[in-house]
Specification:
- The protein is of the alpha+beta class.
- About 50% of the residues lie in helices and about 25% in strands.
- It is built from 5 helices and 3 strands, in the order βαββαααα.
- A 3-stranded antiparallel beta sheet has the order 1-2-3, covered by helices on one side.
- Strand 2 and strand 3 form a beta hairpin.
- The protein is extended and about 55 Å long.
Length: about 150
């Protein structure tokens, strides 16, 4: 169960120091995870956001949906990179090397998703990555012999 409260105010790019800024948002969330009729975890948090949408273009309900859509992307891709692949703690600072590592992380996620529904496929990304590290030839063989 989730309860969200939105406060919004109009702003301008000069005040915010951000090109295109039209509204500033404050969202308070209270989330109760319920299992078998009991609250197992309660979390509260406040997030802030800036949008280029004018108040006439996006009302409160639309803004809440836009923010929710952003977090779906964050949780689907970036959360995996941050938590599972520990990308935020990577100390590589050379631009090209960082891009190559990012591509390899994306490739690992893509390959995991491709094999997940197959018989014998690994259910979690960490299991998949450990398996491939132990037996890389199986991955190479599978994709070399796969048809178009």
């Amino acid at each position: 169960m989730e309860d969200r409260a939105l406060w919004r105010g109009e702003t301008d790019p000069q005040t915010m120091g951000l090109a295109g800024a039209a509204q500033v948002l404050r969202i308070e969330r209270k989330v109760d995870e319920v299992r078998q009729g009991r609250v197992t975890q309660h979390t509260e948090g406040t997030v802030f956001a800036v949008t280029s949408l004018l108040s006439e273009e996006a009302g409160p309900e639309q803004l809440l949906e836009i923010v929710r859509g952003h977090w779906q992307i964050e949780n689907g891709q970036h959360d995996r990179r941050d938590r599972t692949q520990d990308e935020d703690r990577c100390t590589v600072r050379e631009t090209n090397s960082a891009r190559v590592l990012s591509l390899f992380r994306s490739l690992a996620i893509f390959l995991h998703e491709q094999q997940r529904g197959r018989r014998g496929g690994r259910k979690s990304l960490p299991d998949f990555e450990r398996h491939v590290c132990r037996q890389p030839a199986g991955l190479i063989w599978r994709f070399m012999t796969a048809g178009p």
